[in-house]
Write a structure and sequence with these properties.
four-stranded antiparallel sheet, 201 residues, alpha+beta, eight-stranded antiparallel sheet, Jelly Rolls, single chain, 32% strand, globular
Protein backbone atom coordinates (compact mmCIF):
# COMPACT_ATOMS: atom_id res chain seq x y z
CA UNK A 1 0.00 0.00 0.00
CA UNK A 2 1.29 3.46 -0.88
CA UNK A 3 2.46 5.77 1.90
CA UNK A 4 1.48 9.42 2.17
CA UNK A 5 4.21 11.50 3.80
CA UNK A 6 3.23 14.93 5.25
CA UNK A 7 6.55 16.39 4.11
CA UNK A 8 7.66 19.63 5.78
CA UNK A 9 4.24 20.25 7.29
CA UNK A 10 3.43 23.09 9.71
CA UNK A 11 2.79 21.62 13.14
CA UNK A 12 -0.16 23.27 14.90
CA UNK A 13 -0.78 21.85 18.36
CA UNK A 14 -4.30 21.96 19.81
CA UNK A 15 -3.60 21.25 23.47
CA UNK A 16 -5.73 18.49 24.96
CA UNK A 17 -5.65 20.04 28.43
CA UNK A 18 -7.85 23.12 28.80
CA UNK A 19 -7.23 25.90 31.30
CA UNK A 20 -10.00 27.14 33.58
CA UNK A 21 -9.46 30.62 34.97
CA UNK A 22 -9.82 31.05 38.70
CA UNK A 23 -12.16 33.74 40.01
CA UNK A 24 -9.11 35.84 40.88
CA UNK A 25 -7.72 35.51 37.36
CA UNK A 26 -11.10 36.39 35.88
CA UNK A 27 -11.28 39.52 38.04
CA UNK A 28 -7.77 40.55 37.01
CA UNK A 29 -8.45 40.04 33.29
CA UNK A 30 -11.78 41.85 33.54
CA UNK A 31 -9.99 44.97 34.79
CA UNK A 32 -7.11 45.00 32.30
CA UNK A 33 -6.74 48.24 30.35
CA UNK A 34 -6.81 48.11 26.54
CA UNK A 35 -5.72 50.30 23.66
CA UNK A 36 -6.54 50.38 19.95
CA UNK A 37 -4.97 47.79 17.69
CA UNK A 38 -5.46 46.96 13.99
CA UNK A 39 -9.13 46.00 13.85
CA UNK A 40 -9.41 45.15 17.56
CA UNK A 41 -8.21 46.05 21.04
CA UNK A 42 -5.09 44.81 22.82
CA UNK A 43 -3.98 45.09 26.41
CA UNK A 44 -1.68 48.01 27.18
CA UNK A 45 0.65 45.54 28.87
CA UNK A 46 2.60 43.28 26.50
CA UNK A 47 4.00 41.31 29.44
CA UNK A 48 0.65 40.20 30.81
CA UNK A 49 1.81 36.70 31.80
CA UNK A 50 4.51 38.22 34.00
CA UNK A 51 1.87 39.65 36.33
CA UNK A 52 1.80 37.79 39.68
CA UNK A 53 -1.98 37.38 39.40
CA UNK A 54 -1.49 35.19 36.31
CA UNK A 55 1.41 33.05 37.57
CA UNK A 56 -0.58 29.81 37.34
CA UNK A 57 -1.65 30.62 33.79
CA UNK A 58 1.95 31.31 32.83
CA UNK A 59 2.99 27.94 34.29
CA UNK A 60 0.30 26.21 32.21
CA UNK A 61 1.43 27.93 29.01
CA UNK A 62 5.10 27.10 29.64
CA UNK A 63 4.22 23.46 30.27
CA UNK A 64 2.46 23.25 26.90
CA UNK A 65 5.36 25.00 25.14
CA UNK A 66 7.75 22.46 26.66
CA UNK A 67 5.51 19.63 25.48
CA UNK A 68 5.65 21.02 21.92
CA UNK A 69 9.43 21.45 21.90
CA UNK A 70 10.25 18.16 23.63
CA UNK A 71 7.67 15.78 22.16
CA UNK A 72 7.11 17.27 18.72
CA UNK A 73 10.21 19.24 17.75
CA UNK A 74 12.59 17.04 19.76
CA UNK A 75 14.82 20.00 20.56
CA UNK A 76 18.15 19.25 22.16
CA UNK A 77 18.14 19.85 25.92
CA UNK A 78 20.69 22.65 25.49
CA UNK A 79 17.88 24.74 23.99
CA UNK A 80 14.60 25.99 25.40
CA UNK A 81 11.97 28.54 24.46
CA UNK A 82 10.96 31.39 26.72
CA UNK A 83 8.01 33.76 26.48
CA UNK A 84 8.94 37.21 25.21
CA UNK A 85 5.72 39.20 24.83
CA UNK A 86 2.23 38.24 25.99
CA UNK A 87 -0.97 40.24 25.70
CA UNK A 88 -4.76 40.08 25.73
CA UNK A 89 -6.98 40.74 22.70
CA UNK A 90 -10.61 41.86 22.61
CA UNK A 91 -12.79 41.86 19.52
CA UNK A 92 -16.28 43.29 19.95
CA UNK A 93 -18.94 43.46 17.29
CA UNK A 94 -17.49 44.02 13.77
CA UNK A 95 -13.92 43.93 15.10
CA UNK A 96 -11.38 41.52 13.61
CA UNK A 97 -7.71 40.50 13.34
CA UNK A 98 -6.09 41.22 9.94
CA UNK A 99 -3.93 38.64 8.19
CA UNK A 100 -0.51 38.56 9.87
CA UNK A 101 2.25 36.46 11.34
CA UNK A 102 4.60 37.06 14.28
CA UNK A 103 8.13 38.21 13.32
CA UNK A 104 11.02 37.84 15.78
CA UNK A 105 9.35 34.85 17.39
CA UNK A 106 9.76 31.07 17.06
CA UNK A 107 6.53 29.65 18.43
CA UNK A 108 3.35 31.62 19.11
CA UNK A 109 0.12 30.73 20.82
CA UNK A 110 -3.47 31.75 21.36
CA UNK A 111 -5.56 30.80 24.38
CA UNK A 112 -9.30 31.28 24.05
CA UNK A 113 -10.76 33.10 27.06
CA UNK A 114 -14.23 33.13 25.53
CA UNK A 115 -15.97 30.54 23.41
CA UNK A 116 -19.20 29.03 22.25
CA UNK A 117 -21.94 30.71 20.26
CA UNK A 118 -20.86 31.97 16.87
CA UNK A 119 -17.66 33.77 17.76
CA UNK A 120 -15.32 33.82 14.74
CA UNK A 121 -12.58 31.19 14.53
CA UNK A 122 -8.86 31.70 14.10
CA UNK A 123 -7.92 30.88 10.51
CA UNK A 124 -4.50 29.68 9.36
CA UNK A 125 -3.45 30.20 5.74
CA UNK A 126 -1.05 28.36 3.47
CA UNK A 127 1.70 30.75 2.37
CA UNK A 128 2.72 28.78 -0.72
CA UNK A 129 0.06 26.93 -2.73
CA UNK A 130 0.47 23.19 -3.21
CA UNK A 131 0.50 23.75 -6.99
CA UNK A 132 0.73 27.00 -9.02
CA UNK A 133 -2.81 26.38 -10.28
CA UNK A 134 -6.34 27.17 -9.13
CA UNK A 135 -7.65 23.62 -8.85
CA UNK A 136 -11.11 22.49 -7.75
CA UNK A 137 -11.24 19.69 -5.19
CA UNK A 138 -14.05 17.27 -4.40
CA UNK A 139 -13.03 17.33 -0.74
CA UNK A 140 -10.65 19.46 1.30
CA UNK A 141 -8.00 17.95 3.54
CA UNK A 142 -4.71 18.93 5.17
CA UNK A 143 -2.85 18.39 1.90
CA UNK A 144 -4.93 20.47 -0.52
CA UNK A 145 -6.55 23.12 1.70
CA UNK A 146 -5.31 26.70 1.61
CA UNK A 147 -7.05 27.64 4.87
CA UNK A 148 -7.79 25.79 8.12
CA UNK A 149 -9.76 27.23 11.02
CA UNK A 150 -10.37 26.45 14.67
CA UNK A 151 -13.49 27.52 16.54
CA UNK A 152 -12.98 29.27 19.90
CA UNK A 153 -13.27 26.80 22.77
CA UNK A 154 -12.99 28.34 26.23
CA UNK A 155 -9.69 27.43 27.88
CA UNK A 156 -8.16 25.82 24.79
CA UNK A 157 -4.60 26.69 23.82
CA UNK A 158 -3.29 26.46 20.25
CA UNK A 159 0.45 26.59 19.53
CA UNK A 160 1.81 27.28 16.05
CA UNK A 161 5.00 28.32 14.23
CA UNK A 162 5.19 32.11 14.40
CA UNK A 163 5.72 32.38 10.64
CA UNK A 164 2.29 30.86 9.94
CA UNK A 165 -0.15 33.41 8.51
CA UNK A 166 -3.45 33.72 10.39
CA UNK A 167 -6.43 36.03 10.82
CA UNK A 168 -9.87 36.37 12.40
CA UNK A 169 -12.89 37.56 10.40
CA UNK A 170 -15.16 40.31 11.78
CA UNK A 171 -17.11 39.35 14.88
CA UNK A 172 -20.80 39.47 13.93
CA UNK A 173 -22.09 38.53 17.38
CA UNK A 174 -22.95 40.70 20.36
CA UNK A 175 -20.41 38.77 22.47
CA UNK A 176 -16.81 39.86 22.96
CA UNK A 177 -14.09 37.55 21.67
CA UNK A 178 -11.23 37.49 24.22
CA UNK A 179 -7.91 35.73 23.73
CA UNK A 180 -4.43 35.61 25.21
CA UNK A 181 -1.57 35.69 22.71
CA UNK A 182 2.16 35.27 23.20
CA UNK A 183 5.48 34.96 21.39
CA UNK A 184 8.62 33.02 22.25
CA UNK A 185 12.30 32.96 21.44
CA UNK A 186 15.24 30.58 21.72
CA UNK A 187 17.61 30.46 24.68
CA UNK A 188 20.74 28.31 24.80
CA UNK A 189 23.28 26.91 22.36
CA UNK A 190 22.33 26.79 18.68
CA UNK A 191 24.28 25.95 15.56
CA UNK A 192 27.45 23.89 15.27
CA UNK A 193 30.98 24.95 16.18
CA UNK A 194 32.65 22.83 13.49
CA UNK A 195 30.36 24.35 10.85
CA UNK A 196 31.14 27.83 12.20
CA UNK A 197 27.47 28.46 12.97
CA UNK A 198 27.66 28.21 16.77
CA UNK A 199 25.80 30.85 18.74
CA UNK A 200 24.90 31.28 22.40
CA UNK A 201 21.66 33.18 22.90
Amino acid sequence: MSSIIPLFSSAVMVCSTKYALSSGEEDYIRNVEYCDNSGNLKSISDRILEQPELASLQDFVLKQINSYTENLLKLDNSIDLYITQSWLNKAGKDQYHPLHNHPNSVLSGVLFLSGGGKLPPIRFHRFNPLFPLELNFSELNDFNATCRWFEPVYGQLILFPSSLLHDVVPNKTDSTRITLSFNTFVRGEIGNASALTSLTI
